[in-house]
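#lab-general

N.A. 3:47 PM
ok so I finally got the sequence cleaned up, no stray characters, all 265 residues accounted for. can someone with queue access submit it? mine expired

B.Y. 3:52 PM
send it over

N.A. 3:53 PM
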Amino acid sequence: MEAAKYSASSKFATLSLSKSDRIRFLAFPEPICRQAEPVLRRAWPPGIKAEGLYAGSYEYQLKGRPWGMMGKSEAIGSRVLLRDILAFLYGRGWVLATAINLSEKIGSKDTLLFRDAAAGRGTDHPPALPAVDWLVVQFYHSKTIYLHGVGADGDAAEQQPMLKAFREMLASTGYLDKGGWSHDAYEFVLQGRPWRCHGEKSMKARELLLGIMGVLDGHGWEPYGTIRQRTDSDDWRHCDSWYLIRKTGKGCEGLIGDHTVGEGA
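B.Y. 4:20 PM
back already:
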């Protein structure tokens, strides 16, 4: 891997999602950029098309269009991809500080600003951050919620307390149409079109958000960041995706399994 042209001494770094298929690491230590490759290959089955330096950053170009405007499987897969990148960086002591859109261009996506929790202690000994599980709440196509990271596909998983609480909350508010597994995520299809509503109905959608947060908080989940990660157009906008963590109580040194960061990686 060619050496990056920037200094890795800064306590801040950025991850940018560019075009429909690029990820750019800026001001991360060189080992972080290199170690990201197997994470990307594992989290994004189509694989990597190319990689190399780009304007002082290290860029991976992925096959397919994870940040593209269309495609249900790509939309769902991109949340798993970004979840695993966030978990990878967290496991090496880089914590998301904020997501921000720095471009006025149609189709621009968020830039993710990270802070080095080690604060100059180097990359060989990351700080003992709490081990966490990861959950993604994806608001999709005007009336759908996908939950990524709630357990294994199957009937038994549907009986887990959080999914039951979600179903009961949606039913009590009159939003529930149906629920089931789709693309390795749990899908709730809602009545109406809450993500495209107008007028007074827009406030009912905000009440739904309060209900969602109540269920998540009641099961130990706390917000980590909200990210706009797919391309928009003049006529179409995508909702933010919501990334959450739940502490497991262990020290943090690496990525374990699909979405847990903890000891022994």
